[in-house]
Each structure stands twice: as C-alpha cells, then as structure tokens.
Amino acid sequence: MRTSRGYALATEPQVMAAARNTAINIIRLRGGTDIAATHRDFRYRPADVLDALAAA
C-alpha cells in the first residue's frame, strides 16, 4: 500500500480497524441495530458523528 508519503505505516490498517470498531460500538450504545444504515446516515450528516461522540 502506498500513501502520499510514498510508504505505508504498518499500523495504519490497525488504526482504521480500531476507528471502525469504535464507531460500531457507539452506534450500538445509542441503541442502533442497523449498523450499515446508521453508517450511511453518518456519512451524509457528519455533525451527527460528533454529537454521538460527545454523548458517549
């Protein structure tokens, strides 16, 4: 995998996985059951992500 720096850090995939797992857990804590639909909603309304983080 190449990045704009010309190389990839070995931890990048792990960081992305941790961020995704955190997002999924926040969705579940908010009572969400349809993870994919909520993820799409967050994509169209990024301010809701910050609200969810503040509430968590």
Ends apart, CA distance between termini: 33 Å
The arrangement of helices and strands along the chain is: HHH
Count, helices: 3
Structure summary, number of beta strands: 0
Strand content: under 5%
User: What is the average of the pLDDT values?
Assistant: 80
Main β-sheet description = none
Give the radius of gyration. 14 Å
The gross shape turns out to be: elongated
Which structural class best describes the helix and strand composition? Answer: mainly alpha
Helical amount: 55-70%
Task: List low-pLDDT spans.
Answer: none
Protein architecture, described:
The protein is an all-alpha fold and 56 residues long. Helices cover 68% and strands 0% of the residues. It contains 3 helices and no strands. The radius of gyration is 14 Å and the shape is elongated. The relative contact order is 0.11. The model has no long low-confidence stretch (mean pLDDT 80).
Summarize the structure.
By secondary structure, the chain is an all-alpha fold.
Summary tags:
56 residues; single chain; elongated; 68% helix; mainly alpha
Topology summary:
Layout: H1 12-29, H2 35-44, H3 46-55
Helix pairs in contact: 2-3
